[in-house]
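Repro:
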Amino acid sequence: MEIFFTLLGKLIPLYVVIFLGYIAGRFLNVRKESIASLLIYIIAPIIVFHGVATTKLTPGVLSLPLLFFTIACILSLLFLWIGKSFWKDTTKNILAFTAGTGNTGYFGIPVALILFDESAVGFIVIAILGLMLYENSVGFFITARGHHTVKEALIKVVRLPTLYAFFLGVLVQLAAIPFGQALSDVMVSFRGAYSMLGMMMIGLGLASINRFSIDYLFLGLSFLAKFILWPLIMLLVIVFDNLWLRLYTPAIHKVLVLLSIVPLAANTVAFATELKAEPEKAALAVGLSTLFALFYIPLIAVLFL
């Protein structure tokens, strides 16, 4: 129990950042639309580029983005199919988006630094590349389809810089182009900005809610995907790897567990805002899942990490 309360205490500052985002949105007129565009089109591509360009790309490490991208796409399409049975508006699209991802960057990186040493962050950055690619391709396309034709949605995907940042990072890595210390320091600082602004996005989203109304079905299905299916799938992956593949180290196994139990993605609010796909409903679900994770993550950490 001592470990539980220690971790609980270390997570609370992240929730202070969410509260500050709420204050900024409610009383300082900070617009979440501007922060969403900043995260999607500038900061995220820089994080992706630096992560790929500076991490040694072994077969095991390279498989992490593919693993997360595959799981994300499967769950997204599954919940899009489920959502079509209950909603005719864009709710089904944002449900599908959020089922396929989680708050791995904004929330996962700070928690990893609490639980593990600095070396684990490299694995996390590489792993979340798969989720970033999902968010900026399949996830973005499915969400955009709520208000756009197939052609319009594809055009929006092609315009996203994150995909190009990924491939540019691979080229830099393969060409062994070195980073100067000054440039590396600047890019690492973007990682901090990514976490802080991402957590503030949750508060900004909550501040924009004018009418407090909970869609319990949407909330229940979102929690089912994030807090039950994701961890179960990841535990199966770890068992399969231990018995047959032997592809990942125990340190990577712990990273897999952590990334499967983070709350709903704050990017759900960013993308829902950008694409006008039920942003208030998304913000409330993300906020409640983040509150739930305050106790859920320490509990799972005690049991498995």
